[in-house]
Amino acid sequence: MYEMMAGRSPFDVVGMVGDVEQNTEDYLFQIILEKQIRIPRSLSVKAAAILKGFLNKDPNERLGCNINIDEALEEMKNHTFFRTSIDWELLEGRQVTPPYNPSVSSDRDLQHFDTTFTDEAPNLTPDDP
Fold it and tell me: What residues does the AGC-kinase C-terminal domain cover (predicted)?
C-alpha cells in the first residue's frame, strides 16, 4: 500500500547498493526493524494515518494485528481511510464495479503488461530453507 501511494518502498536503502554488507536480506530485515518510516508529505492525512497504522513497529499497536481476527478486521474497516470511501457490504457481496476492468482474451494474455517485463527471462531462485 505504501509503495502504491508513495512510489517506493518504505524500506529503501538509498545509496548503499554497492556495499555488499548492506545489500543483503539480513540488512533489509535490520532496516525494517530499526529504521523509522518516513511518510511523504504529499499524501493526505488519511493516507498517512493508515500507512502509519499498518507500518507500526509494535505489533501490539499495529493496525489489523489484534489477536481476535474479527476485531482486527473491524479495526481496519473502520479506519478513517476506508470508512468514508468503501461500502463493505457491497464489496463483500461482490456488487462493486471495479474502476478498471481490462479486457483479456485468455489467462495468458499479456497485452496490458510492458514488454520490458514480459520479454525478460525468468530468474528462478531456490526457496529459503
Answer: 84-129
Question: For residues 33 and 57, is the Cβ–Cβ distance under 8 A?
Answer: yes
DSSP character for 121? P
Q: Which CATH class is domain 2-95?
A: mainly alpha
Domain ranges of the chain: 2-95
**Do residues 81 and 47 lie in contact, with contact meaning Cβ atoms separated by under 8 Å?**
yes
Q: Are 19 and 13 in contact (CB under 8 A)?
A: no
Distance (Å, rounded) from C-alpha 17 to C-alpha 85? Answer: 39
Digitized pLDDT (tens) for each residue of the chain, 129 residues in all: 999 999 999 987 655 555 556 667 888 888 888 888 999 999 999 999 999 999 999 999 999 999 999 999 999 999 999 988 899 999 999 999 999 999 999 999 999 999 999 999 988 888 776
